[in-house]
Structure formats: structure tokens, C-alpha cells
Amino acid sequence: MRALAATLLLAAGAASAALESPAADPVQLVLQRRSEGLFLSARLPLELSPAVEEVLRKGVPLHFLWKADLIQSRWYWLDKTVASVARTVRLAYQPLTRRWRLSYANGTPGASGLQYGLHQNFDSLDDALLGAGHVSNWKLVDAARWRSAGEQRVEFSFALDLTQLPRPFQLGLFNQSGWNLSLQKTLEVPEAVGNEAEPAADSSAEGDA
């Protein structure tokens, strides 16, 4: 059964979101420090309300924003942002084929627009949401430009970008919990280089460049 609000389902105490469900799968975030740089893998269980799904079926796409900032702690001054990366995942329904389509781009929507370089098609919304909430080996910073000395952390965020909705849909949505889908999490950077297992992807998709 669909939840009563568009929800990022989290284990209790894991992070903040519009609604939490103790029965839901927990968020999985794995930060990996390798010789090539710093990488993030994530699995975020997503669930949409009937109202949000109805908007999708009417042909209005949703945009999910992934952001990660690598922060250097400094006792003598303000903390320093070492690196900042972002990606956008666009979810749309295709009425003619009755399929769901994800499109991926680096960066966030701006005046110049985004270049979506990868697309995936899914037979069900559930599978599409699994894809939208999953990232594997996302490089946050390259080793060549990363001085990893000192205490560092990653400030991670995931959110549904309401500013990308048509203006008639935006009116009043910022005050409706059903559209408040977001996650913020702080991750400590591992001190040692390692190869931890990434969160497993449960979705099967057909990709086309």
C-alpha cells in the first residue's frame, strides 16, 4: 500500500525525512576510500504517495538531486570545502509504452540546462524508484586533487527538487509534508584505504546511451 505522503523511508534515527517507517528497509550509505580517490555508494528506499504518482502519470517528471560535499575540519578557521559534486536523476512516465524512464546527469538544473547522458527504462514504478535511489561508486574527489590529511567528513544530501515542477504545481507544495522528500547525512571519511562492499542494487533495468 502506498504511504500517505511522498516518503524517504528510513530506519529510526538514521536521518530526517517527511515520514519514517520502522518496517522499511534502512538507508544504506557506504563511503569508500581507495587509491583512486573517494567514492560513495548508496541505496535509498523510496516510496511515493498516490497524489505524487498521479502527477507523474499526467506526464510531469520528477527530479531527484544528489549532492555531496567533502569538508576539511579546521580548528583555527572556518571549515573548508575540499570538493563538491552533484547529480540529477529525472523520473518520467511514458504513457504510450506504459513504462517508466530514468535519466541521469551530472550537476544540478540551471539556466543552461542539463545534459542527460544515460537513460534507463523500467516496467514498473517500484523498479524505477529502486533505480532512482541507488548509486554505485560515485566518485566524490579524485586522488590527484585530494590532500587527505586531517579530519574530514562528507555532508550528503538527497532531495526531490520542487523548483523543477511546473509553477501551478509549486504553489503551496513547500508547506505540504507529502512533497517534502529529503535526506541529510554526515559521513566520516575512512582513515584507511579499503574496498568495502557497496549496497546491492535490487532493480533490473535496460540502459541506453
Explain what you see:
The protein has 209 residues and is mainly β. Helix content is 10%, strand content 41%. The protein contains 3 helices and 12 strands; from the N terminus they run E-E-E-E-H-E-E-E-E-H-E-E-H-E-E. The protein has helices at residues 50-57, 125-132, 167-170, and strands spanning 7-8, 28-34, 37-43, 46-47, 62-72, 80-94, 99-106, 118-122, 134-142, 152-160, 182-188, 206-208. The strands form 3 sheets. It has a 7-stranded antiparallel beta sheet, covered by helices on one side. A 3-stranded antiparallel beta sheet has the order 2-3-9. The chain has a two-stranded antiparallel ribbon with strand order 1-4. The two termini are 34 Å apart.
Keywords:
209 residues, mainly beta, seven-stranded antiparallel beta sheet, three-stranded antiparallel beta sheet, 3 helices, 10% helix, 41% strand, disordered N terminus
* Structural class label: mainly beta
Task: Please tell me how large the radius of gyration is.
Answer: 18 Å
Helix content: under 10%
- Which strand-content bin applies to the residues? 35-45%
Main sheet strand line-up = 11-10-5-6-7-8-12
What is the overall shape? elongated
Number of strands: 12
What is the average per-residue confidence, as pLDDT, rounded to a whole number?
79
List the helices and strands and how they pair.
Blueprint: E1 7-8, E2 28-34, E3 37-43, E4 46-47, H1 50-57, E5 62-72, E6 80-94, E7 99-106, E8 118-122, H2 125-132, E9 134-142, E10 152-160, H3 167-170, E11 182-188, E12 206-208
Antiparallel strand pairs: 1-4, 2-3, 3-9, 5-6, 5-10, 6-7, 7-8, 8-12, 10-11
